[in-house]
Specification:
alpha/beta; TIM Barrel; eight-stranded parallel barrel; seven-stranded parallel β-sheet; 15% strand; elongated
Amino acid sequence: MRQVMLLDCTLRDGAYIVDAEFGTPAIKGIIRRLQEANLEIIECGWLKDAPHKEGKTFYHVPDDIKPYLIEKNTGKSGSALLVAMIDWDRYDLSNLPPCDHQTIGAIRVVFPKAHFREGIALGRTIHGKGYQVFFQAANTMSYSDEELEALAGAVNASDARALSVVDTFGAMDYEDMGRIVGILDRNLRPEIMLGFHSHNNRQMSFAMSQIFVQKLYGKRRVIIDASLCGMGRGAGNTTTELMASFLNKKYHTGYDMNMILDTIDTYMESFQSRYTWGYSTPYFIAWTYCAHVNNIAYLRDNHRTSALEMHSIISSLSESQRAQYDYDLLEQKYLEYRSQAVDDHAVYDALRAKWRDRRILLLSPGTSLKKQREAIRAYIEKEKPVCIGINAVSVEYEYDYLFFSNQMRYAYAKDVYPEVLQSKAKLLLSNIKNCAEAGEYIVNFNMLIKRGWPHFDNATILCLRLLSKLHVREVVLAGFDGFSDSHKDNYVDEELPRINPGMSMDELNAEILEMFRDFRQSVQGQMDITFITESKFAE
């Protein structure tokens, strides 16, 4: 048996990216091709306490995987060991039947440090049903030397086939690797394999996987986790194709690179075109603070925070809070950060005086500002409204005011359109700055938000709420178009920074429509709102 083996975890770790919905052809094709590529271990997905849905890599029992496999009696199924993962406290083992050696041959149990003994105890039950048992020690870097020795002792007392070092935050460096591997290698029974599962927060996943192999090769059998194109939660994982090529070159493992590349061409390019994973600045921040990736994803997906904002929010958490994820706490910290209190009474008084009995035109940054430019300009020339640009600048229009609620959009406008920003009055929410300079009106962010939706800080709706507080009676909307899947079709400025990457545009449109309906109902009889450009929100 080989001294070093490759475990492909695409269908398991990649499930975080696609909500496990790979589709039946992809699941079948990835398993078959990886078998034919001579990989030793293929992780087919998760075992969950819920019925299996066809095309998803969440299974209830191992038999759910059968439809995705080539029949063994054909002689074409390959010799790869098929495994599935369970979370130590999220799967009822009474549902797990005895191993029939036709589907899943091994179960991987993942557990946090505080519960490693309970996780290992589950392994004894799993082994008793005939499965090989692999343990995954989440955030292994957090274990002290004494805790690593205790972990090794507990694994030794079990029937474990393997124990994996897990670099949950992609934070491990050479010295960390030396400490952890040295202690575990000295204390584990020699027949227990050591594995390594890394994340690519620092773009070091491939390098650390190589180092892991080099430290143990010839001393103990090794398993390296990898995924096709690095597909996995957050910053992703070591890439299967890179690791296979390295192992072929250095250790003559004989993986079929043509088959691996064919798998990528056939199945992975489609996922890459629709989803985002891999290294990014937010995941660099996760490494910096050893923060759970779910904290990063929550702030990015729900509030579209900039890297600077995310850095400030994560740094405000304690070490233990960063390593876990508490969405209520994150929401609290987010609002604390965004809600820098300012005295805006004078601002409201000044704007009420300026806009009394005036019609307000909000110019949101949708492409209709370009497509219907002549009609909008004609409207402005005829009606003479107060023109307010929303979170963006278009050189096609003369603004009376510019409204900004997003730090990233404000910074972009300052860099790209400095003359426009300098010459126009600006309405800034307190999350951007809390000390006004000449020509600036600063309004409290927390007074304009309304909770109840994930993306409750939509700029146009925030501005509408401001106008409502100013008792503006007539508002006209242009450029409030709604979103399509093509970024260049969403904004009048195609280079405008994206603040909702990876999100379903249909879901975002539905959410904004619901917020808009809610606002219209709240000002019924007090504010007249009309559209002069096409919009998904016009009813």
